[in-house]
Design goal:
heterodimer; A: mainly alpha; Arc Repressor Mutant, subunit A; 2 domains; B: Jelly Rolls; Phage tail protein beta-alpha-beta fold; 3 domains; three-stranded mixed beta sheet; 7 helices; 19 strands
């Protein structure tokens, strides 16, 4: 692999990672504007230091920078997530009661997610939405895979307790 | 059940027994539903291409930055070179001799560091070193100058012909090609010429023409006549008189059928050229023709 300062390499790093950086910051703070800014800021830092960062270290460098940007600076807002319309193909088979019940469950899950500690929510969403493996999340967060498994376990446990009203 | 089994379950890492046991539990259905529902979740829209375009416009449009590795080091390097050059030129300029010269038809007055005065006649050059002047009052003269020396240490005028040394007096030195004259107006002057030293009291002149030494007495003028805009001569070959005329008026002198070795005694005015020509030609019985920048002297009996 070449140097991060080479434009085609930098551009491919940008295209492969900017969306995840955006989501990562959004899951933490629930603020789209800040997530967009974080993408720009993190890549500016990477560009400025392109000679010092090896290509294989570029990813974790980006997440570290993005994370440090808003450390203790902004208060987390409500994380709002949309749901893909999974049932569009089979809409005729769904009873109105089922659709309503489904909507109610989504609302409960939303609220439960919002109530999760930031690191559990981020781990859960990176895995569920972005399909990141535990090892990849561990690299982004700078912790061990085992710590990510713990966060994931606790996230599921807390979500279920919230939803089931325990 | 192993540690973090929910995470293991999501990752399909449970053993068959564990999975069977988990599926039997009361919470299993809820977990399954959370996982299923969360599959359909989406993060807010993020346009990668737009983000890339705005990033590139803001940060990469210009040529890649080339940062010097040690900008301050190269600044220091330049500063050091400048400092060395400044210091060097300061000492160099200080060690250089002060140099004064006069063109034809020009006189200049120089005040030396010890307040001694020098009047430099036309077509002359004087140089001396200003540093250490108090201990070493040494001048080099080519031409003619009148010195009023302030009291102090030995004062030396070096010329191509000889050296003149005094302790504090007024004297005139003229050193031209084949001609060397020292006249003392006050005090005592010692003249070193050809290895011998001559003491020259006030009112005396020491003249060397073509290696022949003459000493004259009875100078009554308090200062050299040239400082009063007159050039005086006493038994001086005509060629030196004409050379002085050339210097005073910046005129090219041509001669025709004239014996320039004949001696001339007299004075000519340094400001009025017609008066000066009369003063030279009449006693010598020669004629002259004045051009714009030259004078032709020719024998009186030539038409």
């Amino acid at each position: 692999m070449g140097n991060v300062c080479e434009e085609h390499i930098f551009s491919s790093i940008f295209k492969d990672n900017s969306k995840t950086v955006f989501n990562y910051i959004y899951y933490k703070f629930g603020n789209e504007e800040k997530a967009n800014d974080a993408v720009q800021e993190a890549f500016v830092k990477l560009w400025e230091n392109c000679a010092k960062v090896a290509p294989e270290k570029a990813r974790s460098y980006l997440y570290t920078v993005a994370n440090n940007l808003y450390l203790n600076v902004i208060k987390a807002e409500k994380v709002r997530l949309k749901y893909a319309d999974q049932h569009s193909n089979s809409i005729n088979q769904e009873s109105p009661e089922y659709v309503l019940e489904e909507k109610q469950f989504q609302k409960k899950l939303d609220d439960a997610l919002d109530a999760l500690p930031e690191n559990q929510r981020t781990t859960f969403l990176l895995n569920r939405i972005d399909g990141k493996k535990y090892s990849e999340i561990a690299e982004m967060e700078g912790v061990s895979v085992k710590a990510i498994e713990k966060r994931m376990h606790l996230a599921l446990k807390t979500l279920r307790e919230q939803i089931d009203g325990i | 059940m192993q540690e973090n089994y929910l995470a293991k379950w999501l990752n399909n890492e449970l053993s068959e027994e564990e999975l069977a046991e988990f599926k039997k539990s009361a919470e299993y259905a809820s977990y399954q539903r959370i996982v299923d529902t969360s599959k359909g979740m989406k993060a807010p829209e993020f346009d990668v291409d737009q983000a890339w375009t705005s990033f590139r416009n803001a940060n990469m449009e210009k040529e890649p930055k080339v940062l010097p590795l040690h900008p301050f080091k190269s600044f220091l390097r330049i500063a050091a070179v400048i400092a060395v050059l400044l210091a060097g030129s300061y000492f160099y300029l200080n060690s250089l001799d002060e140099r004064y010269s006069t063109e034809f038809a020009q006189q200049t007055e120089i005040i030396l560091p010890d307040a001694s005065e020098v009047l430099l006649n036309a077509g002359s050059e004087l140089s001396f070193n200003e540093t250490n002047w108090e201990d070493n009052r040494n001048l080099v003269l080519d031409g003619e100058a009148y010195f009023k020396v302030a009291k102090g240490k030995r004062f030396t005028v070096s010329t191509a012909a000889g050296k003149v040394t005094v302790l504090g007096t007024q004297f005139n030195v003229e050193s031209r090609k084949g001609f060397f004259e020292v006249t003392c107006y006050e005090g005592l002057v010692s003249v070193m010429y050809n290895g011998t030293t001559k003491k020259l009291p006030a009112g005396n002149s020491f003249i060397v023409i073509n290696g022949e030494i003459t000493q004259t007495k009875g100078i009554v003028a308090p200062v050299p006549s040239w400082t009063q805009n007159e050039s005086s001569f006493k038994s001086i070959p005509l060629k030196y008189v004409l050379a002085e005329f050339e210097r005073q008026f910046n005129m090219e002198v041509n001669i025709q059928n004239i014996d320039t070795e004949q001696l001339f005694t007299g004075t000519f005015n340094n400001t009025d050229i017609n008066l000066a020509l009369e003063s030279i030609s009449t006693p010598s019985q020669i004629r002259y023709k004045l051009g714009t920048d030259n004078v032709l002297f020719y024998a009186g009996n030539t038409p």
